[in-house]
Amino acid sequence: MPRIHFGDWIETAVDWLQSHLTWVFDIVKAVLGGMYDGVDAVLGGGEPLLMAGILAVIACWLRGLLPGTLAFVGLALIDSLGLWDDAMDTLSLVLVAAVITVVFAVPLGIWAARSNRVSAQLRPVLDVMQTMPAFIYLIPGVMFFGVGTTPGLLATIIFAMPPGVRMTELGIRQVDGELIEAAEAFGTSPRTTLARVQLPLALPTIMAGVNQVIMLALSMVVIGGMAGAGGLGEQVYSAITQLKVGLAAESGVAVVVLAMYLDRMTGALGQRVSPLGRRAAAKAAVAAAGRFRLAHYKPGGAVAVVGVVVLALVAGGMNQAGSGGGEQTAAGNSTNVGQGEKINLGYIPWDEGTATTYLWKELLEQRGYETDVKQLDPGPLYSGVARGDIDFQTDAWLPTTHKAYWDKYSSQLDDLGAWYGPTSLELTVPSYVKGIDSLADLKGQGKKFGGKIIGIEASAGMMGTLNKSVLKAYGLDGEYKVVSSSTSSMLAELDRSIKKREPVVVTLWSPHWAYGKYDLKKLKDPEGAWGKGEQIHTVAHKGFDKKNPTVAKWLKGFKLTETQLTSLENDIRAAGEGQEQDGVRTWLKKNPGLVDKLAPVAGGAKKQGRDAGRAVDIGYFPWDEAIAATYLWQNILEDRGYKPNVEQLDPGPLYTSLAQGQMDVQLDGWLPTTHKEYVDRFKGQLDDLGAWYGPTSLELTVPSYVKGVDSLADLKGRGEEFGGKIIGIEASAGMMGTLNKSVLKAYGLDGEYKVVSSSTSSMLAELDRSIKKREPVVVTLWSPHWAYGKYDLKKLKDPEGAWGQGEQIHTVAKKGFGREFPELNGWLKNFKLTEEQLASLEVEIQKGGAGNEKESARRWMDTRPGIEDKLAPVTG
Amino acid sequence: MSTRLEAEHLYKVFGRRPDEAVERLRHGADREELRADGTTAAVIDASFTVEPGQIFVVMGLSGSGKSTLLRMLNGLLEPTAGHVRFDGQDLTALGDRELREVRAQKISMVFQHFALFPHRSVLENAAYGLGVQGVPRAEREKRAAEALELCGLAGWEKSWPDELSGGMQQRVGLARALATDADLLLMDESFSALDPLIRRDMQDQLLQLQQTLKKTIVFITHDLNEAMRLGDRIAVMRDGRIVQTGSAEDILIRPANDYVASFIQDVDRSRVLTAAAVMDEDVRGDEAGCGCETATPDTPFTELCAISARLTHPVAVLDTKGKLVGRIPRQRLVGFLGDQQGEPEPCDNPRGTRDGMVIANA
């Protein structure tokens, strides 16, 4: 058989249409979009409960008091699920689609009823419309109309049209021929016959068709959601693709409530408008009279209209008031760079895509832009960006995964650079699958896995790599079959298998949250068959940097570390389903200054340093003053446009990396005693930028309820009381050496007391525990320390001066730091904190809790206006 | 009085190339030949005239083309060939719009299955034709109510068609047709769907209405008794052709062919025939000279028999002005009953005239 290149013809046709008939599509888009916006503005504009009231009054009018009440309850349920806006979007979509469908379907049906030829020609077309999988015209729809409501509407209209046409035709053809003849015999014109005889008699059937149209339209909203039609469909789609079963079910319930409402209402409306239905209803009402009279009470048309109008006026009034308030808050913001300009973002429901998209949504909104975020499949997303309906997307995996899309649209796209990388692709098994650690181990184990590798969407680039090179490289291609499904199905399968502890092998990639959720094992790829890791790029449509130079500049400078990305993803997941933006806000609060870093405002509140844009690596070990100073400087540097990377290390590794120049600076050099060892060892490889705090003191401390112990000398002979233990800190700390080597000896305590070395945090925990139980305890501590503020403690006096002189806290940098960062060098050299400043900063950080240090430091800075300019003065 | 309706060589052929088929029919081809070619000749060369105030009945079995013929009369079907003239106007020459105008104003129709609009009340149904004419609502309802009253449906105006019995529904159909004041009433098997008793009532009511309204009516039926009862003139159709046109008596007494003859076999002549049909018009002039009972031309056959039984001589028939128009000897009555209309043959036996039994035996 010769291969018929039907597909190629379609592609050519689509290309031609795209290049030649844009204006037609633009008109269609403008009309459909306009209708949708209009309806949506009305439905979604009001207070949810008032709108629910209006809809309930309509239900009351059409069906009676009980259905009206039920309608209100159902709609209130939607509101309480937090899906009201989405539900109204969907309702608007369905109504607009249904109206357009009916406007076309009824005349077509009439035409088909009057002409057998038309009917015969229409039938196959209707079959195609009804059975052709919606995706097939959804994607060209996106190509023609771009992402948004229009392709969704169009797909809905196409899908919902056939029953409308068929039922209209059927209804008209069912009208008794003798009646038509009678009308004709009395001289009625064909048009009048249609209007006075055929349509009224066909109306019950036509209304059944309209009902079907609406129900089918509703069933299409989920598919419409894939093209960015919004509403409940988008919720369902995004929930399902992210395995958020709960959210999907909630959205599903909302769809069902809408469906039942629309079904019952159109059914009742059908009865209302058709004379025959009115008579049947009147008869039924007479029959039912007496029982459930109240439940079946129907307000008259006038009463219903009054109800609707009153509620609508209230809703309108509140809306007016609400929008007035909104405008006031928006005014007068100096960071309002966007001035309400609209930026459209699209994302694939992959975690890093969701995370960064909502991050940018939040950033752009803070900068005064209006944003619209749509979840899409890669195909529609890329074509949406290429068309310019979507301004940019942040989740382009290049060069492999999205190669097909990139190749197709590269002429219409701008790559704004990678913000994360490298990623890796891999096959993964749960870690309980023993004996399989590398791809090579899979060979001969096909039976164990049912001969299947669970893949993702067939269109994903990694699927091609898997089939074309990975399987071959390890000789797996006969043994394993790659099952392509979807990411969500793959994850569902993984979840199912793990629950049953069955062996399974899936395609996965890093970063992915599944690695955090399950105990998984990435299979090693000694042959390198997966190729090099990819970069995640931000991709905008061609010319975006001219249209929106500011945003493009921000995006070009966009970078996230793995820590940032995972913490962002975690915060978003913690915020819960549908609350992505709240998660982003939480994360941004934890990372103060990041907003200004990611989206710097030229000439705004924050002054840039001369070396803005330079990355500074700051190391610290988890001592409180180190944490405090480090996060303080992180905030300051970010405000000044630097890119500080903060890393926690133990003192040994930290000094080593400073000496080797891998780390730029650290702020907690206790000299001359505590860090003497390190400084001596790396002499000549470090620069001392001077002390920013001092003198400090080291001491042994007891809670003040321990009576009779005021000096180190008093400890003697009381070892039993303290269990013979002095609670120390890290063994490596210089003060621990001093304690053991000189202090204990000076007071003759070395036989009686044993210094327990643990860690600062254990020491503090032990102190806390003991104080709560009012047990005697003696710990090593130093000043300044927040513990003195929190507990009632007594520093033991050191009459012998065994602890030596107080130390200074120095800033220690790598050699040549001053040449590399002259400006920062100057700032750090002048860095000074008073005891009060440091104590309050530490207390603030202590209050903020672990993980929120940066945010806490920012809060402290906010209480001290001008501190930033004092610590990091910028001239000009 | 001029002719109200005239059908002239009407043909109706369904199927491909109808004109060609008409040509072939004109040259003597018959229906079966055409059917073999896939064309159906429904009406072939039908011609008749209807005078004002007449009830013209078209009678035939189903498939004989009578309904097709009727629908050509008001233009619901366009004749393939031939002309329909209504009040001298050629309907076949009119455009759709004018044709509709004629139908709305002058021709109305009553249907076999009533064809009442189920979504309209009885009153609205009756007023339908007036609505098409553009009569204002108030007047329309007044006239429709009058028409309903005429048909014996006063008080049912607000009812719905499906609440009425079949007979009452057809009265609504009749009222709808009468309300438009159309001159010509086309009735398509209008009483066929009704029970026999009700059908009779309706026939009576139609005849009664006709006495006052004097409409011109074309009535289609497959029931010969109904045709005989109602029809001033009757056309008998068979296989698309009109095989005989004439009064009820004409058809009964002088069937044009065997088909008509076999058709009328089962008809109860005594209920159809009247004095006018059976009388001998060859009169001497003194038959009514005695004071005996006489008959009128309309006297039904059964009554004639009764009169004849009371007289010793033939019954004299006088018209409304008392003028002698015919005589009916007893033998003639018996002859009509037995479908034997010749003169009696003379008998050799002189007693034969007195004793039929003997003749029969001989």
From TrEMBL, chain A:
Domain of life the protein comes from: Bacteria
Residues covered by the ABC transmembrane type-1 domain: 87-266
Protein name listed in UniProt: Glycine/betaine ABC transporter permease
Compartments where found: Cell membrane; Membrane
Transmembrane intervals: 49-78, 90-114, 134-160, 213-233, 245-262
GO cellular component: ATP-binding cassette (ABC) transporter complex
Organism: Streptomyces regalis
Membrane-protein topology: Multi-pass membrane protein
A molecular function GO annotation: amine transmembrane transporter activity
Keyword ATP-binding: no
Automatic annotation (TrEMBL), chain B:
GO terms of biological process kind: glycine betaine transport; response to osmotic stress
Coiled coil region boundaries: none
Keywords on record: ATP-binding, CBS domain, Nucleotide-binding, Transport
Pfam families linked to this entry: ABC_tran
Residue ranges of every copy of the ABC transporter domain listed in the record: 5-264
Gene Ontology terms for molecular function: ATP binding; ATP hydrolysis activity
Keyword ATP-binding included in the entry's annotation: yes
GO cellular component: membrane
Region (Disordered): 338-362
Keyword Transport annotated: yes
UniProt record similarity statement: Belongs to the ABC transporter superfamily.
Name under which the protein is recorded: Glycine/betaine ABC transporter ATP-binding protein
Annotated organism of origin: Streptomyces regalis
